[in-house]
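Hi L., both proteins are below.
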Amino acid sequence: MTATDPTTTGRDAPAKDHWIAVSAVAFGTFLLVTAEQLPIGLLTPVGSALSVSEGAAGLMVTVPSIVAAVAAPVVPVLVGRMNRRLLLVALMGLMTLANLASALAPDYPLLIISRVLVGVAIGGFWAIAGGLAVRLVRAAHVPRATAIIFGGVGAANVFGVPLGTVIGGLASWRIAFGALSALALVVLVALLAVLPPLAAARPVALRRLGDQLRDRGVRVGIVATFLIVTGHFTAYTFIGPVLRDLSGIDERFVGPLLFGFGVAGMVGNFAAGAAVAKRLHRTVLAITAALGVTVLLYPVAGLTAAGGVTLLVVWGLVYGGVSTSLQTWMIKAAPQAVEEASALWVAVFNLSIGLGALAGGTVVDALPLQGILWLAGILVLGAGAAVWSVRRDESLR
């Protein structure tokens, strides 16, 4: 089953495949996630340089996530009928300037302001790029193109964030942000060179955003996204202590293991892209069930190094398919309003990242470490129940 019906996309359906453009958009998603998460590895040097605590420096991650959640639906509404090619280029220009401002920020308040701009660029770009596959390739290739676009997310976790952290350690955190700015400029030029014209078929309106929630398939996709992503980040935010204290793994091996998690996630992303092309509902249900069971098994079967490593790899493999499969779900659920549905999905996805980390922090302070794994597993299985409820919906098969 394809991700969308060519008869429902009207003049947006391309006559030929634009794979180079798909690759350029994937390069953009790689940059977005790298920019969003890079400060995780730079909290100490930034805090020391600007005389703030590591907790305060952590707002460099929290702020753009929250802003991105707001920007995802707002940016498409504000730009109206603006050509989406020009919009993506403009947002990448904003990312270039924002990271340059981060690199040059003389104090903490200006640094946070620059991170607000990063959040606007992330939310706006992702809202458009997430559903762009239907406009760049023919219908039969949409799942594969979606997987490539979201492959940039896994690549950022595997290569982008670690490499940026190394640059920050060897040179300075300002050089790391400067490198991000230079990379954004490269992406900008690539998008300008290879993206075809992407005229907006109609402006996105707040009313139409709300209208999407009347569709049962869209509602289930939003609920599933909220529960899965919140559950994942509830536990994954504290994966270091989980590996160390529950599985007995030495601290020095945590970094390499997280690299392995990212590699497994990239494999899972492309495997999911192939699977959703044939069986969308079954694939999403399988991913949700497998993720919930894996997290719930961790407090029982992850109490040794071997068990912990095995479950971590499975976790990465399964979670790697979440973005591709859920974005495809939204495309299938709203084939005539892909941009609106994608904007809602990106908003919920980014909001869930912050809420998951917040929930995990609250639970880990009140309960034993296993508590975050139990909570995460229950949330994800709740998403599975929501997905199961629409098993008879032909449009999602």
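That was the first. Here is the second:
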Amino acid sequence: MSGAAFVLAAAGAGFVAAQIATLFRILLRERRTPAARLAWIICVVALPGVGIFLYFLFGEVDFGRRKLRQLKAIEARLPRAVPGVAPAARERLPAAQAFARAAASNGFAPVAGNRATLAASSEDAIRRLVADIDAARDSVHLLFYIWLEDESGRAVLDAVRRAARRGVTCRVMVDALGSRKLTQSPAWAALSEAGVRTGLAFGFRFALLHMFFARVDIRNHRKIAVIDGRIAYVGSQNCADAAFRPKARYAPWVDVMARVEGPVAWQLQCLFAEDWELHAGEDLRDLLAAPVAPVPGGAVTAVAMGTGPDDAFADVPDTATLLFAAARERLTITTPYYVPSETVQQAICAAALRGVAVDLVLPARNDSLVVGLASRSYFRQLLAAGVRIHEYPGGLLHAKIVSIDGQAAMIGSANLDRRSFELNFESSLLAADGDFVGALDARQADYITRAEPVAQAEVAAWSHGRRALQNLMATMAPLL
């Protein structure tokens, strides 16, 4: 055999060995559904070489073993019970099993004595947040996936600098990818100059090198603000204008943000403390030793949920499906990105089939073409089960809300899609209270009033080509 032939034979044998090793890795990797394993096996076999590259780029939910060990150690050190506050009796709560599942996510117990109000708009949420920062006495903690240098972003930056200059301890963290423009701007440097402590979640310098050790698209998607440890904000809104300049053609972005006071703010502070120590290296346990008293007249019982790929269990879809199962009369779901797991899809259909009035509200135009197509692949089954689908045309509906029977609801940063289920670090709030849940129902009713209903006949008339493309996009979900 000539030297060239030998080299070719060796290269071929090496390639086959790499294919086999990758297939075994797919079969042995934990936290993979059979559908995801099959999809990746087909990808690796059908796209020789390219499939292996794609698998190691996107196929494993891994943000780095060192980071994972650090996070688990931090979670083990931090307290889980609100000092001086007894847990609420879960068995008396509506959707008690959903509350139990949410509590298992972080070890927090549902706590009573909270007050929660909804911001009227994105502008109102920023005004309220700035006012609370201006009134802060001890600490300001902010964590946003996206923070822009627009009117809203600058207003909050200015408020944080003012607070730091008068002696308030201010800590600001953003996702390194989602807020990369801010972190490269003079405004970010000005925070440090004013005495603000800053941190980057999942920062990296060399993307091509980083992807050999961890996925670059695992991000901290949370939106959390905690003022003096007793006032907190949670919801879907980034620190940005509704006009959202990076994707202005989809504007306005329609969000929902809740301002909460009481013991559940301590739990959101604890989630911030986890992220802060993981990425900024500062231990905030001493701050969590301070008690947060129930608010007089606070009628909301709530539990915070911090979810992410560090957990082997599906916290977001589990909690959502238990909420769906608890619905007796009404179930309303608002989400911008609907690419569900089979369990979530079936749970929504099951609620409608047993007679629950189910409304699903989605944006008419999605900023992700793939997600928009994939979402519509589920419409035929949903409509056949009796789910009413509404497409909101007045901008990108970015709110994430699930509410049942006017009694319990979940809001936060998590979407009903695979990315929120398996990849992103998300923050959510599960709450029970007639007035607060009623406000969320009223907000969703307003979305529905402005939306266009999706007719079963319209979906049935879609061409075979359109349906094939939609189903193809949905089939790709397990790969990503």
